[in-house]
Design goal:
Structural class: alpha/beta
Distance between the termini: 52 Å
Strand order of the largest sheet: 4-3-5-6-7-8
Largest sheet: 6 strands, parallel
Shape: globular
Bound molecules: S-adenosyl-L-homocysteine, iron/sulfur cluster, FE3-S4 cluster
CATH class of the largest domain: Alpha Beta
CATH topology of the largest domain: pyruvate-formate lyase- activating enzyme
Length: about 475
């Protein structure tokens, strides 16, 4: 908050006539200036863009989805794999003609790549005016002012406290039914392959009260599903400074579930080392907490998991899946997998394939290992699996996951699920799309009176590896 106050003072400047130009006058002027934001990477980044939009909106700037009419372009970037960074660099090149055409256009790089590359960005890319890391978004109005004055604006300070708890996100790309709520920031794990601890800083949890009030506000506005976001939601821990009481993730889940039985609650991502039986029991006891867990395994080999510093082994992971099956029998699990990590052998790879079969993932996000500068793996291990082998193993993993997903979906035919209608299906305005509690996308024919945000019972009639098709039943 302090930042805001000092900034307000800064903006009280004298105008040409010698009278005082107040912040409000500035805001009026800002109304005619529009910002455009494009996001890459994980859901946290998309959620951060909504915080950025709220901060800019508070300054009076308007948002636009049309890049051509923007006075400011922000690109919220991801560093997780080399390819993610490449696509951002490519996109920045597209902005060159826009800047040529409109020299007063401000271009800002936000997010993880801004944090990783810092001032290097300004040296590398002449067209960039602003570089702001994930904890520096409150400073954006100030950085914009600098850019306006012809300077470059950079702030890559990582905070131990910032959670943007008081900022009500401005919903971009909204369907009016589902929304993300950020519950924590940063990550204190040190998975050896991962750049996130370096780009997002230390883990910190947001006050449970602001999370519940954001969920309540969304519900009042017609939203029917919230997804609680964090890199490792199971280690959510908030200490109430007034009562000295701690809220853990299971308690937070319950608090959000109690907002209203008609509000669905999801969360992502869970870490196998931290997901507790208390969380699973809370899920089982609350019908509106969705029966779906994204529980990335990364590798099926205990030896590789140790090199990855995931702090669990194959047996531990299997034990967690067994606990899920026992406590929440209708729960579905999905995963992230990295293939071709340092020293991975054919036998390790087989263990990953075997784990995928055993865990019966409904779907997985699958990648081949991409070494990230500065990470523990880059410092200590040799990236020694040849690219062709990485690609071949990835193909094998994708092929297997497709088979498993197909089988998973085929087994749903004939069942009836409660589906939350999210809107029109991509292919046809005669069809609705929505998901069941288990996070499966279902497409079905519209029926009179039903609209987005309604719950309907849908009987599944056919399935592909990605989607289920069905009809509304009464
Ligand atoms: N916090 C989450 C993951 C966030 S990153 C968790 O711990 O599960 C999303 C996924 O990107 C990871 O699960 C991992 O599968 C993948 N990933 C991360 N770093 C990677 C790298 N260097 N190369 C390839 N994939 C990577
Ligand atoms: Fe990265 Fe591991 Fe943290 Fe996930 S838990 S963000 S993979 S360091
Ligand atoms: Fe990418 Fe940063 Fe998310 S590196 S995956 S945008 S936390």
């Amino acid at each position: 908050m302090e930042l805001h106050n000092s900034h307000q003072q800064e903006l009280i400047a004298e105008d040409q006539q010698g009278s005082v130009l107040s912040l409000d006058r500035d805001k009026e002027f800002n109304v005619n200036r529009k910002f455009y934001i494009e996001s890459y990477g994980c859901q946290m980044n998309f959620s951060d863009s909504e915080i950025v939009a709220a901060i800019l909106n508070q300054e009076g700037f308007g948002s636009t989805r049309n890049i051509e009419e923007a006075d400011m372009i922000f690109i919220n970037t991801c560093s997780i794999r080399e390819k993610a960074e490449e696509s951002v660099r490519k996109r920045l090149k597209d902005f060159r003609p826009l800047k040529k055409h409109k020299p007063e256009l401000t271009i800002g790089v936000l997010g993880c790549m801004a944090e990783r590359l810092k001032s290097k960005f300004l040296e590398e890319e002449q067209l960039v005016d602003i570089v702001a890391g994930p904890d520096a978004y409150r400073d954006l109005p100030n950085l914009l002012k600098k850019a306006e004055d012809g300077d470059k604006g950079i702030n890559v300070f990582l905070s131990r406290e910032e959670t943007y708890a008081d900022i009500s996100p401005m919903r971009l790309d909204e369907n009016g039914v589902t929304a993300f709520i950020s519950i924590m920031r940063g990550c204190d794990n040190m998975c050896s392959f991962c750049v996130v601890p370096f780009t997002r800083g230390r883990e910190r949890s947001r006050s449970s009260y602001t999370i519940v009030s954001e969920a309540t506000d969304l519900f009042m506005r017609g939203y029917r599903e919230v997804t609680l976001l964090g890199q490792n939601v199971d280690s959510y821990k908030w200490l109430n400074p007034e009562t000295n009481e701690i809220t853990n993730f299971a308690q937070l889940l319950e608090m959000v579930a109690k907002v209203n039985p008609l509000l669905r609650v999801r969360f992502s991502t869970s870490h196998p080392k931290d997901i507790t039986d208390e969380v699973l029991n809370t899920m089982a006891q609350n019908p509106n907490i969705c029966k779906y867990i994204h529980l990335p395994v990364q590798s099926g080999s205990s030896r590789i998991l140790e090199l990855m510093n995931r702090t669990y082994d194959r047996e531990w992971y299997k034990n967690r899946i067994q606990a899920i099956r026992q406590i929440i029998p209708d729960c579905v699990v999905s995963s992230d997998i990295i293939t071709g990590f340092c020293t991975e052998t054919t036998a390790d790879h087989q263990e990953t394939l075997n784990m995928m079969e055993w865990a019966n993932y409904s779907m997985s996000y699958m990648f081949y290992y991409s070494e990230r500068p500065g990470t523990p793996a880059a410092k200590k291990l040799k990236d020694d699996v040849p690219l062709e082998i990485k690609k071949a193993r990835l193909n094998e993993i994708i092929r297997l996951q497709n088979q498993i997903s197909h089988r998973h979906n085929q087994s749903e035919i004939g069942k009836t699920f409660e589906v939350l209608i999210e809107g029109n299906s991509k292919r046809s305005t005669d069809m609705f799309k929505g998901r069941n509690s288990q996070n499966k996308m279902i497409v079905f024919q519209k029926k009179a009176h039903y609209k987005a945000g309604d719950y309907v019972m849908v009987k599944i009639e056919s399935a592909s590896s990605a989607t289920l098709m069905g009809s509304i039943v009464n």
